[in-house]
Amino acid sequence: MDAAPSFLLMLHIASGAISLATAAVAIVAPKGRRPHRLAGKLYVLSMAVVFATAVALSLASNDLFLMTVAIFSFYMVLSGYRALYLKKPTDSLDLRYRAGALDKGAAQFTVIACSAMATYGGVYWYTEPLAPVLVTLGTIGSLMAYFDLRRFRKPTTDPRAWFFTHMIRMLGGTIASVTAFLVNSGDILPPLARWLAPTIIGTVVITVWVTYYKRKFSGGVEPESVAEVRLREMPEEDEEDGI
Fold first, then answer.
1. How does 113-123 read in b/e, with b if 16+ C-beta sit within 10 Å?
2. Which of 8-12, 60-64, 75-79, 135-139 has the lowest mean pLDDT?
3. How far apart are CA 217 and CA 3, in angstroms?
4. Model pTM?
5. Contact 90, 82 (CB under 8 A)
6. In whole angstroms, what is the distance from residue 142 CA to residue 49 CA?
């Protein structure tokens, strides 16, 4: 193996391990407190490295699965993190707290890339072993990014939407990362379990959490009562952002 791909692979594995560890800390830590915010930031940074190295490795090895999971999982994490800044975009004078080039560019790239991969999987359905994965992740990713672009043009009026976007996207990105880890980790689990177990378990967890918080919010409870929510609405305020 060439030195460059070997280094990229080691960096990819190391950053992947850090991302899974920090994701676990962020999940169990009290929401909005310093450990949760710090773990969340480290998770996003490590996932950025995972994404960059995965793209480089996939181009070097022509690995469409790695490319698809990299784009899908990182967009979920990036958009989930940015949801913290886009709580009330129309109320902020600071451009960092409005959908800008980063948000729109990432969404547009994801729509194009995921649509292409879904199309490729559909065309080569009978000859490409990973066609179902390419079609599924490509379709979900492109639709998710497309609806984000629509939301950027017309922000939702639901004051709690950011809370669920942050939670679902971050957990969804973690599910995709765990799936990629299991698929590439050998025979830890049977092949079918490697593909389905993270999604099944993760979907159940997300559904339970979303239902739990929707019930709390429907009773008049605000996100501030279940998490230490911070929002900078004016650029001169000194308070740090985060959930």
1. bbbebbebbee
2. 60-64
3. 53
4. 0.84
5. no
6. 22
